Amino acid sequence: xxxxxxxxxxxxxxxxxxxLNDLLANYQIFYMNVRGYHWNIKGSNxxxxxxxxxxxxxxxxxxxxxxxxxxxxxxxxxxxxxxTYIERSDVEExxxxxxxxxxVQHIVESFAKLIKKQREILNTAGEAQDEGTVALMSDYISQxxxxxxxxxxxxxx
Length: 157
Description:
single chain; mainly alpha; 75% helix
């Protein structure tokens, strides 16, 4: 077995980097969707949602950077083209959404996809004994599960 500079199996880190690049693509599309919701929101909940969406896209931007840096730490290159993101993302690009309820529903759906993907990466990272990626995914999952609960409560679900 060959290992990289941080002592992880190079074949396993290649798979992790590929999975993390898929996650990065999902985060990038989700980020742009939430930016659009923030810019275009209208209606009686404008002030509340405008602020909430800004908080959300700020958090997504931090996670985008952390995921890209984790890929680099594993010795690989993060994807960095929107054409690649669109090809690899399970989160669909959303255009011209101005209704708050619709935007929040899309956010909940996007988080469900991210959480599923992060659980898969968590398992792969555990098998590779990659504690750095395990910790990152574990933190994201626990934060996002709570966020989903809050958004679903907003929707009355």
